[in-house]
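New to this. Help decode the following:
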Amino acid sequence: MNIVQVIPLSRGINKDVLSYFTSTDVKSGDIVKVTLRNKPANALVISSRSVEESKLDVKGSSFAFKKIEAVTSQNLLSRPFMLAVKKTADYHTATLGSMLFSLLPKIVLEQATELITIPAPEKETTTESSRLHGTILQSDDDDRFSNYRSLVREEFARGRSVFLCMPTSGDIKRAERLLEKGIAEYSYIFHGQMKKKELVKKWNELAREPHPVFIIATGQFFCLPRHDIGTIIIERENSRNYKSQTRPYTDLRFFAEAFAKETRTRIVFGDTLLRTETVWRFRNDELLEIAPPTLRIPTNANQRIVDMRKIHKTLVKFNPISPDLAELIRISRERSERLVIFASRRGLAPLTVCADCGKVVSCNRCQAPVVLHTKNLSEHDAASFQDEIRFFMCHRCGEIRDAKEKCKVCTSWRLQTLGIGAELVAEEISAQFPNHSVLRLDADSVKTHKEATTVIKKFYDTPGGVLVCTEMALLYLDQKVENVAVASIDSMFGVPDFRIRERILSILIRLRTLAVKNFLIQTRNTEEPVFTFAEKGNLIDFYRQEIIDRETYDYPPFTVLIKISLSGEKTKVEEAMSRVGEFLKEYDVSLYPAFTPMARGLFTMHALIKIGRARWVEPSLYEKLRSLPLAFRIAVDPESIL
């Protein structure tokens, strides 16, 4: 009989280690099935001792030991993998169990008994200095993927495999098409949408393959059974999708780098526009380069910035389509050229205000600004409204209501829309150019990956076609088009986030690189430097200014941000957060309500700590944060501090 210590693979457990007993011979690294809160759960074995060795612990225990139900898998996780998980958990102030839960696909745990596992060999210490550092690759898509193909062939020649990590399954499909030439035979694709049988088949094929392999996968598949990986590539390094939106708010880029260090593997961070933090690390010799980073993105397209303030002064009725854009739409049709038109928000208008008192029309449930829509209700929701009615939708909690209402403050009927949404742009084009083929791609018009790929295929197959889209379309636009226009992006500047200009420039640069003949931007804010940086493809001056601003205001990479959040009844939340502020007062904590403080009837408040980059993980602060009750949500390096 053995006493076994395990880490529960579950988010909601605030303990790292639990104890069970079993008569089965288990060892560290095995996955077992246990009972947790009267429900079956997976757990990772970290130690196993005989009862004779554990007599004192057993006698002194204040609880009864439960039995392990079954051994699910042996040797599933390597020692380097576990060390990287531990480092990542510490950085994010999470338990080992919750971190493992976020880094292992649920489908892998469910099918563990059918998966081949391979014990990790002792790795030889490499003398190649490049494998002790991270590296960067900043260039356009074509150049970047050409470099990736060369890296794969180079590693194959050395008998090593390559792991290309992508932020989403949509990115994987795109990468597959760009990389398929010459290396498809030994390529393996893994993502969270795989069927169980497909996963088991591909996993076991990968484990048995004697030749080096090229893995294209999302970040949860670093547990794959290959111990010969020579290079890890983090593609689209700037993507927000690498950061999980639920506890423990894991940054997969951090884990990938920790894993690369434990396995002495080269890691490459690649993107058209890398994060400011990554460029700062490169400038400070923390990262090397695969090739000199591209700091000016060239283009042969004709570029124009249209000042919408001047145009709207001459109009009797508001029109989201400037004469310049209307002309571009017309010539695109005449020349059978394709045109992509970007809008930063979906719906008709991202904001509605009272023209008399200025009150913003907001959601009844969470107080977030509502967005005006028309015609796109589901059959279930449409039953409550007329077919052609316009309605307000909250993009935060999903509330839908009729747009025929008065101002809740002054009862005025004069509600006025502000901003331009993708739906409004598509409607206006259809009205002005009734013979044009106009397609839309946003979260309202398509709901699945299959629907999105169908829209994109139809667009590319339609000469003279127009695609009105939001940011989600950039996952699917994998071929250049003749003309690209930005109908609206100004509303994004209203988001009070220190990373917002970097995000806007990233979108503009990606759109600009799509355009072959014309690239047009409509804006009411022509003085904004981001537009000049985008027009000239000038990344070096952007980074220079961004780094100065970040240092001035103590933002990353100069500090690590730690955000503590609590939701509930307003008075209780304010009292609890006040106590947190006192508890952490030596760290100069800032307390403030969330940007949208009410959501689903709950009030949310944040506490923010800025700690020097070299000081984190500081043991005393770490212990204090870990001692907070589970009701408090802790995000280290959050995507947004609001």
